[in-house]
Design goal:
It is built from 29 helices and 29 strands. By secondary structure, it is an alpha+beta fold. A seven-stranded mixed beta sheet has the order 17-29-28-27-18-25-26, with helices on both faces.
Length: 813
């Protein structure tokens, strides 16, 4: 079926000249489904008529090398009660012209919308949501969204508690009226004939109309817009019991015919309201814990900072610190902002951000991150990033956005939720008719009670909470352990991975050269390092550091000379010391024949080899290489223990790459891969049926990270790599890859458990409430028990999700 043609105007950024606009116009006109396209360079817009969706057009513009400016905002949504509400709100938002993505989170009662402005705007979004019976609210400028959410949650929690306490007391008193004789209280509760039902009316009326009013208002708001939600079912059920009982009291003669009973069911209405309030109260308490990780992260930043200005030390609110300020941090205090150490040698506990348990020492020139703890030694830093630009603020925002996202597994629940309430209402109506027409006497009583039980037992709320609560807790737990997950799709993809591909440099290795072998004496190494100390070359630093690691003291050197691409030389204790390539030494008259064989062997291992000559005589070989991280062997072993295949991707030659892979226990090696070929290698593996996780840290890894089923970037890598990846390992430890995949597996297992419970609960208990098993087993479900089960279902789902807070890298839940 062909789509209807529409005309869309897109804002386009990145066009600099007529060539740009004509190129984009040609590209858009060449697309199948586009009838006409015109690009206006002056106003930066593209107008397209055709049948392509807005998302398809945005992708086409982006693929041509331009950008479509878009806004991404998270709004509060008032009135959400169940998965059906979520489906209706998302549908309303997605129908607004200009909206690209709209995701509603029931657990947080928020809507995250990505849209083009124009044509979309907040007013249009608000009107669309209001048309479905909900209220969209924008964050105030400078407002802390988490603080506001906590404030609103506390207010709701207090309101639920008040209603629960008052309703509970009245229902308890009503139970004494109804069951007083069964409890031996006839003497105390000596009620006249016919007084009991009227007393029940007095006790239950406040429960129905005040304690339960939050449900009835929500149901009425939905009904005014031609929709229904979970509260519709509660309202129908409780008013059926209450209204029937009221009729029995006011016009009892209507119920004197054979087969009908004059019993009242005020207690049923009251019990249902109070039990559902109890469920909502417990659910509210549990849901408050799903944001614990965000609160913990936000609590890492101190409220104030000690700043040096105009020769004075001032204690200022964190919001008043600016870039360039000198900030003093004492032992035991948290670092307030990102910056560079200018004085002191602090030892910082970075575990709250990176998951690394060991403190690290920093010195002048080293970067420090806000939120880390200074364990010893006062120091001073220069502020480089403040406010929302700090690493901590960006992590908080990433985690918050990820917690509001939806993984693909949630789509089934969303589709079912969209039709759930109408279907349940239809089943309840059918139940009433069947029992009334063909049920045993008193048939109307059976019909009414089973009708109410079906309405009350159904729980779309559990369906709506099954996925978002697990996502929120799982992503939050990952952030606490240094695993930063961009969205729910990345979290879900990671659990399906069967092959992990590591880029070698900077991921399995340190990404910096180090001295791995010296074949001569310690004195000669000290002489070579003394000469190399004058050079700024990375290989020279590796030799100097290698001598220091071996405990050698460097003698004085002079007359330093460097030959680009060859080597260096200098005088040490009146002896000429030369360090460099074979050609460099040979050109200087050094007999290098004895060194060449050993040099060739080491070069085949991927090492950079230099000869050292003292007074014109060869004294040894220096072998420098990018060394393996100490955690790499364990990282590979953990992944293999999890049943995953591991591969290494590198630009090294086959023989040196194979040697490194063997040391790591990796069987699959993709060697001699140029930077621009990495993405193609990942594509080949996927074409062979593998689900690939790519682990990298460099700019040239970004295309491969984006192409993989899930990309994992090392936290010490480039911003480009972290932007392309779905998961970032803040600590830069390759063992975090196994932790991220374990977390994904645990979270997805938790989501499946929640969805199974939500589906199984409804599939099993709705037929039971309808009385399907009564003809064979005589089993019926009381509406009061139905209310208790319904309340328990949501609490069970949220409580199960909270188990993820106990996740540890060493095991799965």
């Amino acid at each position: 079926m062909s789509r209807e043609q529409t005309t869309v105007t897109l804002p386009v950024a990145g066009m600099n000249c007529a060539s740009c606009s004509s190129r984009l116009e040609r590209r858009l006109n060449s697309l199948e489904g586009v009838a006409a396209a015109a690009v206006n360079l002056a106003v930066g817009e593209a107008t397209v008529t055709g049948s392509l969706t807005l998302t398809e057009l945005v992708e086409a513009v982006t693929a041509t090398g331009f950008q479509v400016p878009r806004l991404r905002e998270t709004f509060r949504v008032e009135g959400l009660s169940c998965a059906a509400c979520v489906a209706r709100t998302e549908d309303a938002l997605r129908q607004v012209p200009g909206v690209l993505v709209a995701t509603v989170n029931l657990a947080e009662t928020t809507a995250t919308v990505e849209y083009l402005a124009p044509p979309a705007s907040f007013d249009r979004l608000r009107e669309a949501v209001a048309g479905r019976g909900f209220k969209l609210q924008r964050r105030e400028a400078g407002e802390d969204p988490l603080a506001r959410a906590d404030r609103e949650r506390r207010a709701e929690h207090d309101d639920l508690r008040r209603r629960l306490l008052v309703g509970g007391v009245l229902v308890l008193l009503n139970a004494l009226v109804v069951h007083g004789s069964d409890l031996g209280l006839e003497g105390i509760l000596a009620l006249g004939t016919g007084v009991g039902p009227w007393l029940q009316l007095v006790l239950i009326t406040p429960v129905q109309f005040w304690a339960g009013s939050r449900f009835h208002r929500s149901a009425w708001a939905a009904a005014r817009h031609g929709a229904a939600n979970m509260h519709t079912l509660v309202t129908l059920g409780t008013f059926s019991a209450y209204g029937y009982s009221l009729l029995v009291l006011l016009v009892p003669e209507l119920f004197q015919a054979p087969g009908l009973t004059a019993a009242v069911y005020f207690d049923t209405a009251g019990d249902i309201v109070v039990l559902i309030l109890l469920g909502r109260f417990l659910e509210s308490r549990a849901k408050g814990n799903t944001s614990a990780a965000i609160r913990k992260l936000m609590g890492l930043a101190p409220a104030t900072a000690r700043v040096q200005r105009d020769g004075r030390l001032l204690e200022l609110p964190l919001a008043e610190v600016v870039v360039g300020d000198l900030v003093m941090v004492r032992p035991g205090e948290k670092v307030p902002v990102d910056g560079v150490v200018v004085k002191g040698n602090p030892v910082l506990d970075e575990s709250m951000l990176t998951g690394e348990s060991l403190p690290v020492e920093r010195g002048p020139g080293d970067p420090v991150v806000g939120g880390t703890l200074n364990t010893t030694r006062a120091f001073t830093l220069t502020a480089q990033r403040v406010g929302q630009a700090t690493v901590l603020a960006r992590i908080v925002e990433t985690v918050r956005a990820a917690q509001g996202s939806k993984p693909p597994i949630a789509r089934l629940a969303d589709r079912i939720a969209g039709v759930f309430v109408p279907v349940v209402a239809a089943v309840a109506a059918l139940t009433f008719l069947v029992w009334w027409l063909w049920g045993p006497q008193p048939s109307l009583t059976y019909a009414l009670l089973n009708f109410i039980a079906v309405l009350i037992i159904a729980c779309p709320c559990a369906l709506g909470l099954a996925t978002p609560t697990s996502i929120m807790v799982g992503i939050g737990r990952g952030a606490e352990r240094g695993i930063l997950i961009r969205d729910g799709a990345a979290l879900e993809s990671a659990h399906r991975v069967d092959l992990v591909v590591f880029d070698k440099t900077g991921t399995l290795t340190r990404g910096a050269p180090a001295l791995v072998e010296w074949t001569g004496s310690g004195d000669d190494l000290a002489r070579a390092a003394a000469v190399e100390a004058f050079s700024e070359h990375p290989l020279a630093r590796a030799i100097v550091n290698g001598a220091a690691e071996r405990g050698l003291e460097l003698p004085a050197a002079s007359d330093f000379q460097a030959t680009p691409g060859g080597g260096v030389q200098g005088m040490v204790a009146e002896c000429l010391v030369q360090v460099g390539t074979v050609r460099f030494l040979a050109d200087a008259g050094v007999a290098v024949a004895a060194l060449e064989e050993d040099m060739a062997i080491r070069e085949e291992k991927g090492q950079t080899v230099m000869g050292v000559a003292v007074a014109g005589r060869p004294v040894g070989l220096l072998a420098v290489a990018d060394t393996l991280r100490p955690e790499s062997v364990a990282a590979v072993a953990q992944l293999k223990d999890m049943g995953l295949a591991v591969a290494m991707l590198t630009g090294d030659g086959r023989r040196p790459a194979a040697a490194i892979a063997a040391a790591l226990g990796i069987e699959t090696v993709l060697a001699q891969v140029l930077p621009e070929q990495k993405e193609a290698e990942i594509r080949k593996l996927q074409a062979a049926g593998r689900r690939v996780a790519m682990v990298g840290d460099g700019i040239n890894d970004a295309p491969a990270l984006a192409r993989a089923d899930v990309g994992l970037a090392m936290g010490g890598g480039t911003d480009v790599a972290m932007e392309a990846a779905g998961i970032t390992l803040m600590g830069g430890d390759p063992r975090g890859v196994a932790g991220a995949i374990r977390l994904s597996r645990a979270t997805m297992a938790n989501i499946r458990q929640n969805l199974f419970w939500a589906f199984a609960y409804n599939v099993i208990l709705i037929p039971l409430a309808a009385g399907v098993w009564f003809p064979w087993f005589g089993i019926l479900l009381s509406p009061t028990f139905a209310a208790g089960a319904m309340a328990l279902s949501s609490v069970t789902v949220v409580s199960n999700a909270l188990r993820l807070r106990r996740f540890a890298d060493s095991h799965e839940l």
